Each structure stands twice: as structure tokens, then as C-alpha cells.
Amino acid sequence: MHYRIKDTFEESVLEYDRFENIDTNNDLIKIGMYAYHLARWVRYFPLSQIYLVDGGVFKTDPVKELKNLERFLQLPRYFKKEHFFLHPKTNLYCSAFPIKRCLDKRQKGLRHPDVSDKIVKRLRDFYRAYDNQLSMMFNRTFTWMDEDV
Asked: Is the same domain home to 57 and 94?
């Protein structure tokens, strides 16, 4: 992977010489083209064997997403609401079973940059075709596809 991280987020995701274009050669952009990547996987595995966890659902209701995964894998029901608790300081779900455990804030991803609404719109416009293709492949809409996010 070749991530080109520059001084600003905008410089990192836009082409150097033509700032009106998304830099599709930068893996920061390519990694989000999920339908493109999954098209290669479905040459070897049928879609019926692939489940995509929706991180937005998992973040707000981990039990719901885990139950969906259990159903997909045809596993006996295991996960319950009491297996998780909402941490009052981080507002993130933590494991309550078999022991209470939370990710340290430092383990929970990188700090997100401030991004202008204009760049967010351009990125949404760029990814829309890939997201539509992904929705059609899996017959579902994922939370990050919501314009209000």
C-alpha cells in the first residue's frame, strides 16, 4: 500500500496538479473502494459466503450486528445485551463478558482531521458509484452511505 499523507487532508486526497480531482492513485482513496476490492474476492467466493460487518451498526448496537453475523454463519444464538456496556466517558461499547474490558482511547483509531464540507461532498460523490455497487451486491445499505453522517 502506498499512502501519501501530506500536510493537509485535502492535499492527501486530491491530485497534486489538479486539485479538482480525487487522487485515485493514493491508497488512502483506494482502500475505500469496497465494491472494487470485493469484485476480486467474488471470483473465488460466492457472495453468499461473504458477510460485511457494518461498523456504524456495530458501534451503536454491537449485539444487533453480532446477531446478524450469528444468523449469517448459522451459529446458535450467543450474544446478549448484557455482554456489553456503554462506557460513560468514551460513549463506546465495551465487553462485559467474560470480563469487563474496554479499548483504550489510544487503541481506538487515529484522530480524525477536520475536513471541509466541500471535500466531504466531493468524496461522497466519488464513492457513490462504488457504494451503490456494494449495496446491489449485498442487497443492503450501510450506515456510512447515509448522507447525514
From this structure: yes
CA distances for 48 relative to 72, 137, 138, 142, angstroms: 9, 10, 9, 17
pTM given for the model = 0.79
Residues 147 and 105 placed together within one structural domain of the fold: no
Amino acid symbol at 110? L
* Backbone dihedral angles phi then psi of residue 48, each to the nearest 5 degrees: -65, -15
Structure confidence by residue, pLDDT tens digits, 93-134: 999 988 899 876 665 555 677 888 989 999 999 999 999 999
Q: Note whether residue 44 is domain-resident.
A: yes
Same structural domain, 34 and 62: no
Burial 4-18 (b: 16+ CB within 10 A, else e): eeeeebeebbbeeee
Establish if 23 belongs to a structural domain: no
Query: Residue 67 is part of which domain span?
Result: 51-109
Bridge partners (DSSP) listed for residue 86: 93
Q: Which three cell numbers stand for residue 7?
A: 500536510
Q: E strands of the chain, at which residues?
A: 84-86, 93-95
CB 144 within 8 A of CB 120: no
Task: Classify residue 32 by its DSSP letter.
Answer: T
Residue 93 lies in a domain: yes
